[in-house]
Amino acid sequence: MITETKPTTHEITVTVNGAEHSLEVEPRLLLVHLLREKLGLTGTHVGCDTTSCGACTVLVDGIPIKSCTHFAVQVDGREVKTVEGLKGAELHPIQVGFKEEHGLQCGFCTPGMMLVTSVLLEENPDPTEEEIRWALSGNICRCTGYQNIVKAVQWAAKNMRESA
Amino acid sequence: MSSATETEHGGWLGRSVKRKEDDRFIVGRGNYIEDIKLPNMLYMAILRSPFAHAKINSIDTSRASALPGVVVVVTGDILAEHKLAWMPTLSGDTQAVLATDKVRMQGQEVACVIAEDPYIAHDALDLIEVDYEPLPAVTTPQAALADGAPLIRDDKEGQADNKIYHWEAGDAEATEKAFVEADKVVRLVTHYPRCHPAPLECCGCVADVNPATGKATIYMTSQAPHAHRTVFALVAGLPEQNIQIISPDIGGGFGNKVPIYPGYVVATAASLLLGRPVKWIEDRTGNLISTGFARDFYMDGELALKSDGTMTGLRVKMLSDQGYAFADAQPSKFKAGLFHIVTGSYDIPAAHVVTEGAYTNKAPGGVAYRCSFRVTEASYFVERLVQTAAYELGVDPAELRRQNFIPPEKFPYTSATGFEYDSGK
């Protein structure tokens, strides 16, 4: 039975895409709603509500997590990176790769796909197709663009290696 | 395409054309339904039935209504006062917006909470008390058509059983003759099971009825904004020019975002009654259990052949599990889909096809998941049947197909179910 009284709140400090924010949040507030509703970063999407589809993937201290089942209070004192933080002065090669290789259709899964890819390529600059598919196995694309998503990751890997 | 442009780079064929929408998607600046926020906006959450079939004795919303932040709890009885408790489907049937008398599927919409905050709206769902009296549930079309089956649509005047339609195409007598004279008869009994399109983005809307102008602007996950405008006009009794349906970026649809769902209607009605924008974002459970499924066709058919493999007749009986409302995406395409395609690309001189639809205690649907309009079912069936025939005759399946293709000199060709193939090209 839920309570009908106002829940207590916690103050958290979190760095999102390099900018520090101090916020008062309910302990039950989901990280994805902190990002979308409190900070206006709507590039992170909710697909399944259950950690299954990966549309809500963000990086917490450089590690991909599913923000739809992560509480905002869990990122207190941590660094979060969202799709909005991928681009620097210019588009990230992963973003260019997804566009060049038609690695997206509806675009709903794309932020999660790109963020996981960024971690993969940091750890493994020259992954095999199997390694790419394994790395992205927690991210679902319902337009079934997996073939081109793999090509997009390969395009990015090649271009990042050549410019390194 | 101008010829000047073609000459400049030798034409578009084989060239890579970059998509315009990618630029916003890859930087996280798409504009999906959930991204839309309007001033003074309220949020809606839906209470769904835990039973597949039950009588509703009472709904007590008093505790939910008293929760701070809740603006209103909408029930079927409130909608009925405005003649909005039921809505038309795209196939000319009716579907409950919010249940009044009974629930007829698990996940059916029973009440909606409108609140200042989406978390509060969901909290209040737990405070609504519904007294259900469970009834026997019908979960297959065979059980639905059996003698003594519980009547699912007792709300419909003149509906004495669970039959929805009975359609036939072709020539029963000529087909019977072909089977009597056949050297070989091959039979296939199969079920193309129910599946769900499951777009990655669930359904949702932001309904904004402006009390000053009386105009409704509805941002929604719609694959058919023009058809939806017509349905909204019919349901709300507004002229079409007072309704604007805006379909922004959509996170996949695959046919699932063609039907009208109760969530859209209640959000719009609430916005009309409250004079404030109302946002509804469906959760994944709601999407999977209540919105448009695809397929669910039981198919039983036979192919008559001569001993040399020439096809002489086809007869098929199909039975469709429609759920508790007939809501196929586009009924006028039914014949062009199922009946046209069921003879495949084959020169079959006689065919007879019967298809029936039945109500069950399941979600309505019959949407065109990645094509269909029942084309997929027909195509799946005839090709499986031909493949089975090849195995039983011990011949190469490709050769059997080639042998029976409509020959070029027969075009334009009229199939045994009465549809014309113009050229075969």
Keywords:
heterodimer; A: 164 residues; alpha+beta; Ubiquitin-like (UB roll); DNA polymerase, domain 1; 2 domains; 5 helices; B: 425 residues; Aldehyde Oxidoreductase, domain 3; Aldehyde Oxidoreductase, domain 4; seven-stranded mixed sheet; five-stranded mixed sheet; 19 strands; globular
List the topology elements.
The complex is a heterodimer of chains A (164) and B (425).
Chain A: E1 10-16, E2 19-25, H1 31-38, E3 57-60, E4 63-66, E5 79-81, H2 93-100, H3 110-123, H4 129-135, H5 146-163
Parallel strand pairs in A: 1-5
Antiparallel strand pairs in A: 1-2, 3-4, 3-5
Helix pairs in contact in A: 2-5
Chain B: H1 3-9, H2 22-25, E1 42-48, E2 54-60, H3 62-66, E3 70-75, H4 76-81, E4 86-88, E5 94-96, E6 102-103, E7 109-115, H5 118-125, E8 129-134, H6 141-145, E9 163-170, H7 172-180, E10 184-192, E11 204-209, E12 216-220, H8 225-236, E13 243-246, H9 262-274, E14 278-281, H10 284-290, E15 297-305, E16 311-321, H11 334-341, E17 350-358, H12 375-393, H13 397-404, E18 413-414, E19 420-421
Parallel strand pairs in B: 1-14, 12-13, 16-17
Antiparallel strand pairs in B: 1-7, 2-6, 2-8, 3-7, 4-5, 9-17, 10-15, 11-12, 11-14, 15-16, 18-19
Helix pairs in contact in B: 11-12
